[in-house]
Amino acid sequence: MLQNDRYDFILNLLKQNKSIQVKEIASLLNISESTIRRDLINLEKEGKLNRVHGGAILGEGMTIYNQSKEIKISDRTLVNIDIKLKIAQEVSKNIQDGQCIFIDGGSSLAPLADLLAHRDINIVTNSILFLQRLENSFANVYCLGGDYLDKYQMTMGPIATAQLSTFNFDAAYISCAGVSFENNMGYTAEIGTNVIKQQAKRQALHSYLIIDDSKIEMIGFCTIDKLDAFDKIYCNKIDDIENAPENMVWV
User: How many domains does the chain have?
Assistant: First the structure.
């Protein structure tokens, strides 16, 4: 099916159902999910829809992605499961025994728990979701206290930030709500988690951003840092993406 025909199909389906899912459209058209995500990016830029995690809703085009548009992390863990696991497997190769690392909250980083539980490493995290997946862990794990936000299953706030400032890391592994290759920037949907990410990045010798392609060209409410300020950015491999930074690791 030609691109313009796909656009018409997507917009007609969206008008009928008010919301659409990437997986559903890919199945209906028998094409890859990455192709559909790229179509949604283009249609959003044209002002035809608004992207959300896993799909799109009716709207007037690109808006700032904020906390009100975020779905619960328990639901996000069910989206792009295979992609997130594949990315986590590649990220885990970068982590060496004996290191001290920060693991951010977020569904993209949760699969790392299964891969790191039996490694001889020191982990600091603010993610309750990550902790719940660590069973019989051999790693030394430290959880930040502070304010608990159930929607993200993370701790944040001044207590968490103060505790975080006492640690130093070989590496910080950070997730985000969106990135813009055009603006060279990574974003979060709200300020609480953003402060934690920025603090962890300052405390680390190296920093890595973990995304999947649903985050591409999604501009969020708060800015984390420039994309080229990270050592590497891990993402699943997709075609025909413009302005991607040189530090991308396509998995």
Answer: 2
